[in-house]
Automatic annotation (TrEMBL):
Claim: Ion transport is one of the keywords in the record: yes
Principal location class: membrane
Keyword match Electron transport: no
Name of this protein: Trk system potassium uptake protein
UniProt membrane topology term: Multi-pass membrane protein
Subcellular location: Cell inner membrane; Cell membrane
Length: 480
């Protein structure tokens, strides 16, 4: 049986925190004398009122949650927060609720797809709210990926279970402590990124906003030109910190705790960094040889765009869709890759590719050594059959969702390239797609409302690793 009261209380607690965060852009609106002050004030009051009702209704001495409660809470958190966080947008000049919800869901899932234009002249408070949504969504997903998804055995994440992922009585204080430490590391990296951006030529407001959306691998910018509006140095800073955003935050936390941080000893991290370097250099050399462009510029452009897409940040620098067929197909597949588990990045994740490759190699080996008995290991841990099954299930569901979403988008009147790349970029939480309409040089404003709602659902499914939401549709989930 579902524990309704604890769920209501926790959702109310989250909404009360969201109401509090709405005060930050409200301060910016009041400071700059912007009309959006009223929108944020009303939104904060309404959100706070609903939060108070939920907390009063759900007040209960026992806040113990079972596994079904955790599945439902995880899915409801992103959905309900998005429904309320969209209010400042819809109360803003001329933004309907469909666009507001799309922008918000894209923000909290750190996807980065946008329906807004005229960012260079937009109110500071709205720009800050977009960035803040991505920053909060980033740290929220990290905590979920480290403490909740391994416990739920979603998509092979059990492989990264820590002592704080057991959700027993003794594990709860450890989980809280870990969440606090992760938040502090996340905040420190954001500050470092902001300072680096400022010294690379950005104004402080732009630097702060881009720091929040870089570490969260979200990709919202304060300019319609995205990162092409800033210096080459700022673009290199972005490349570095986007790559950092794709790394497991636990590694940085262990470093600050003065433990041994064996980066190259971590199989996932090594594979991730080597992959980024090889793909960036390969595309850079190809671009240098086939385009009239200096080698240094070719490496800068390809490195930035490759890291942006692989980490699912989605910043725009140049429209790589116009680089030719080789680059077009390369970036289409790069959208699916993703960063490391325990990072803010979306996508399939590097560890799943590595495990799949290992299983494939052993399967080939068994064709000529049928009696051989092998045990798969990853980072020193045994890869059990249930982890492999979970990864296979996740991969099949991911493919199925992309195919279904692509078909829905085609039925709304979109062309095949826009439909396929739009589905991939939503489910992988990348941001821009391919083609003139939703590519790096465009946005999603011109899409039909049905397409926007469908893509928003795709973003939610991708951010929650699909299985977390899919289990809610199984009849057995609601029987007892």
């Amino acid at each position: 049986m579902l524990n309704i009261k604890p769920l209501l209380f926790l959702l109310g607690l989250l909404l009360s925190m969201m109401a509090g965060f709405m005060c930050l852009p409200l301060i910016f609106a009041l400071y700059y004398g912007e009309e959006t002050a009223g929108a944020f004030m009303v939104s904060a009051l309404l959100t706070g009122t609903v939060a108070s009702i939920c907390m009063r209704s759900g007040k209960h001495q026992d806040l113990t949650l079972n596994i079904r409660d955790m599945f439902l809470l995880t899915s409801l958190t992103w959905l309900i927060v998005s429904l309320f966080a969209a209010m400042p947008f819809t109360l803003y000049h001329g933004i309907n609720y469909t666009d507001a919800f799309f922008e918000t869901m894209s923000g909290v899932t750190t996807t980065g797809s946008t329906v807004l234009s005229g960012l260079d002249k937009m109110d500071h408070s709205i720009l800050m709210w977009r960035s803040l949504l991505q920053w909060l969504g980033g740290i929220g997903f990290i905590v979920m990926a480290v403490a909740i998804l391994p416990f739920l055995n979603v998509g092979g994440m059990k492989l990264f279970r820590t002592e704080s992922s057991d959700w027993g009585d003794k594990a709860v204080p450890r989980t809280r402590s870990m969440a606090k430490d992760l938040f502090l590391v996340y905040l420190l990296l954001t500050v470092m990124c902001g300072v680096a951006y400022h010294f690379a030529g950005m104004q402080w407001f732009d630097a702060i906003n881009h720091a929040m959306t870089t570490l969260s691998t979200g990709g919202y910018s304060t300019s319609d030109k995205s990162m092409s509006n800033f210096s080459d140095s700022a673009q290199w800073v972005g490349t570095l910190f986007m790559a950092a955003g794709g790394l497991p935050l636990l590694l940085f936390m262990q470093c600050l705790q003065r433990r041994s941080m064996k980066v190259w000893g971590d199989q996932q991290v090594k594979g991730y960094l080597v992959f980024l370097i090889i793909v960036s250099v390969t595309l850079g050399v190809w671009m240098w040889l086939t385009r009239d462009i200096a080698f240094a510029d070719a490496i800068r452009l390809t490195s930035f765009n490759v890291v942006s897409v692989v980490t699912t940040t989605g910043y725009g620098l140049t429209d790589y869709g116009t680089w030719g067929g080789f680059a077009f197909i390369s970036f289409l597949f790069l959208m699916l890759v993703g960063g490391c588990s325990g990072s803010t990045a979306g996508g399939i994740k590097i560890f799943r590719f590595q495990i799949a490759l290992s299983v494939m190699k052993e399967q080939v080996k068994q064709q000529f050594h049928p009696n051989a008995v092998t045990r798969h290991r990853y980072n020193g841990r045994i890869v059990t059959d249930d982890i492999v099954r979970s990864i296979v299930t996740f991969s099949l569901l991911l493919t199925g969702v992309i195919v279904l979403l692509s078909l829905i988008l085609v039925l709304t009147g979109l062309d095949p390239v826009t439909s396929l790349s739009g589905a991939i970029t939503a489910v992988a939480n990348v941001g821009p797609g391919l083609g003139p309409e939703i590519g790096p040089a465009g946005n999603f404003a011109g899409l039909p409302d049905l397409a926007k709602w469908s893509l928003a659902i795709g973003m939610l499914l991708g951010r929650l690793e699909i299985l977390t939401v899919a289990v809610l549709f199984h009849p057995g989930f609601w029987k007892y």
